[in-house]
Specification:
Layout lengths: L2 H9 L3 E6 L2 E6 L10 H15 L6 E6 L10 H6 L3 H20 L4 E5 L2 E3 L1 H8 L2 E5 L3 E3 L10 H8 L4 H10 L3 E2 H7 L4 E3 L4 H13 L3 H15 L3 H16 L2 H11 L10
Parallel strand pairs: 2-3, 3-4, 4-6, 5-7, 6-9
Antiparallel strand pairs: 1-2, 7-8
């Protein structure tokens, strides 16, 4: 990729942010390229997530794509434009760091999917905490078709769908339809196009109505317990619940339930 192209990319609004009702909406904004994840775009997404993580006013995040699709994965023209181990390592390390930023973000993240979500775009859907898709969208990890196995997308994919289903996607590279993605657990639900926004906002508003402190510790505990054995998972989550019970929002929530009123969260 030329210096001129990089400079032009960095001057674009690669990620658009709009905040409303305590919900941050991030839009991947390379519509002509089906929002392919250039190095600059991945860096921009990560920076915006870091800002959101520090913003106590934000309770939930929506990630969507501009134009005709959610995200087509890595920018293949960029990958062929600079053939070097160091550049490739930078691209894939940056992608992994972006995905981890989604997982490590205190706020829940919801993918709003339309069109296609392929390769690293499918990985991003799998990485988000929740995902809603229009029923005509399609998903794939098609790297095998071009000689580049979807190894990093495999990480998120294999943690969301059954093993045989993940291997089917990875080994064949074939597209799956939105209803199948919902059946396999890649997304939470597939809805008609005209219902997509309402379905996504339904999740976002539900999440935003909860204690941000409780969601933060619960999200962290969820991902941590996935990677340990059963007894260690119970040990860890018992400690988490003990600490949670000592939080002011737990006291407020339980008292509000007993007193039959709505809780007033303090975020601590």
């Amino acid at each position: 990729m030329s210096v001129e192209t990089v400079a032009a990319e960095q001057s674009e609004d690669l990620v658009l942010r709009e905040d409303s009702e305590g919900i941050a909406r991030l839009t991947l904004n390379r519509p002509k390229q089906y929002n392919a994840l250039s190095l600059a775009m991945m860096q921009a997404v990560r920076r915006e997530l870091e800002r959101i993580g520090e913003d106590a006013s934000i309770k939930a995040v929506i990630i969507e794509g501009a134009g005709r699709g959610f995200c087509a994965g890595h920018d293949l023209r960029e990958l062929r434009g600079e053939v070097s181990r160091d550049f490739y390592k930078q691209v894939f390390d940056t992608c992994c760091a972006m995905m981890m930023a989604v997982t490590n973000l205190p706020q829940p993240v919801i993918a709003k999917v339309h069109g296609i979500a392929t390769a690293a775009g499918c990985q991003l859907v799998a990485t988000c905490d929740l995902a809603v898709t229009e029923e005509t969208a399609r998903f794939a990890t098609p790297g095998v078709n071009i000689g580049l196995f979807c190894s990093t997308p495999m990480v998120a994919l294999s943690r969301n769908v059954p093993r045989k289903r993940a291997m089917q996607m990875l080994l064949t590279g074939e597209m799956i339809e939105a209803p199948t993605a919902a059946e396999w657990g890649l997304v939470n639900k597939a809805v008609p196009e005209d219902e997509l926004e309402d379905a996504v906002m339904g999740f976002a508003r539900a999440v935003a109505s909860k204690s941000p402190h409780v969601l933060k510790i619960g999200k962290r505990a969820f991902y941590e317990q996935l990677d340990v054995g059963l007894s260690e998972a119970y040990r860890q989550t018992s400690e988490v619940m003990t600490e949670n019970m000592l939080a002011r929002d737990a006291a407020e929530g339980i008292d509000a339930f007993l007193e039959k009123r709505e809780p007033t969260w303090q975020g601590a």
